[in-house]
């Protein structure tokens, strides 16, 4: 007996794929915007401990949120 995927299951798969696409987009664009954003918003200079801490957090938190949403 073959089980077919229902339209609701397809919808769930599509929505999950869209969510993963947004997660990947954030992680790919972040290296481009993190330095100017921290310099402008927080007035941190690159190479300082505060700058490095925030860069680490900004990479870690979205990745862990994506992993926890699975």
Helical proportion? over 70%
Q: Average pLDDT value?
A: 91
> For the CA atoms, what is the radius of gyration?
18 Å
The amount of beta strand, in percent, is: under 5%
Number of helical runs? Answer: 2
Largest sheet, if any? none
Question: Could you characterize the architecture of this molecule?
Answer:
The chain is an all-alpha fold. Helix content is 80%, strand content 0%. It has 2 helices and no strands. Helix 1 (7-42) runs antiparallel to helix 2 (49-68). The radius of gyration is 18 Å and the shape is elongated. The relative contact order is 0.11.
Keywords:
70 residues, mainly alpha, 0% strand, elongated
Indicate the topology.
Layout: H1 7-42, H2 49-68
Summary?
Helices cover 80% and strands 0% of the residues. The protein is mainly alpha-helical and 70 residues long.
């Amino acid at each position: 007996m073959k089980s077919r995927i229902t339209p609701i299951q397809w919808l769930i798969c599509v929505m999950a794929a869209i969510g993963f696409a947004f997660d990947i987009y954030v992680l790919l664009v972040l290296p481009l915007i993190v330095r100017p954003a921290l310099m402008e918003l927080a007035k941190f200079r690159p190479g300082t401990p505060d700058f490095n801490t925030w860069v680490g957090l900004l990479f870690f938190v979205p990745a862990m949120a994506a992993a926890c949403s699975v």
